[in-house]
Amino acid sequence: MSDATAYIGLGANLGQPERTIMQALATLAQHPAITDLSHSSLYRSAPIDAPGPIYVNAAAKIKTTLAPLPLLGLLRQTEWDHGRERHFKNAPRTLDLDLLLYDELWLETPRLTLPHPRMHLRAFVLRPLAELGTTWPELAHKPMSHWLSASADQCCEPIKERVD
Any idea which of 8-22, 36-50, 64-78 has the lowest mean pLDDT? Predict the structure, then answer.
């Protein structure tokens, strides 16, 4: 299989979120099926429809030979390796990894929907993606600039310079 380009959203709000996200990025970068990884700055954001402390978020762009569902499996395993538990929907978490985009693929299965169905509504996803220079399909017939403007009232600010 040839390399695909995928984008991953990272978030955490329990434990040491900044450290956990950087460790998760390092873990993914070392995986043999991931040949290239770049990431955004870290951002601070308020929880949306969820309890708990402030989140730390980022986005990563990868090249991978993994198909979407095996890549999702790798993301879930990485979450569990960092202490992720799923007590209830939107529960505070030590690590959350979402597969946002996978090439130009549109997919809807019980386990995975691509592009991620709510990413265009979340500043904590859009701002890191924009920083990576993401080109993406129009969602709901509107470009990324529209969704960035529409989410401008959501708290999402950089907390660290980009580290590669």
Answer: 36-50
Provide the CATH number for the domain around residue 111. 3.30.70.560
Q: Give this prediction's pTM.
A: 0.89
The residue from 3, 19, 86, 93 that is catalytic is 93
Active-site residue, 76 included: no
Cβ contacts of 164 within 8 Å, gap of 6 or more: 38, 39
Annotated catalytic residue 153:
no
Residue 102: domain span: 4-160
Catalytic residue check, 96:
yes
Q: How many domains does the chain have?
A: 1
pLDDT beyond 90 at 58: yes
